[in-house]
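Allow me, if you will, to draw on your knowledge of protein folds for a short while. I have a record of one protein: its chain in single-letter code and its fold written as discrete structure tokens. I remain grateful for any guidance, and I place the record below:
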Amino acid sequence: MSETRPSWDQYFIKIAEDVAERAICVKRKVGAIIVKDKHLLSTGYNGAPKGFAHCTEETCIRKQMNVPSGQRHELCRGLHAEQNAIVQAAVYGVAIENGTLYATYQPCVICAKMMINAGLKRLVYTGGYPDELAADMLKESKMEVIKL
């Protein structure tokens, strides 16, 4: 009997998908993990900051204002999964430079800029996201970008 093992990218993106199940955003559930040398260092999912009430239909400013996906990121109570993964690494003093971020969607421009400045060298994601500036900045960076 021959079994096919998933590639490292497939393995880690599956973990990011599992992390997304914890997300509390009412619009989109996103998961992200940061990996270095095939070791999982940090996880993040999208949702309100620590100690804040969970996002709901009633508290979602973006839904109330009909803000299109990929626009006006500042009009949100929550943090993105990528932001939470980077912040969690910082909180616990975990070095992520030269690591890989796995995400269930292409990061927005804010997350892309954070990833670039954090020194991440690779991005692997599955779902698309309508943010052309983010895609352009990722192309301009020296980060290797892979869409599975």
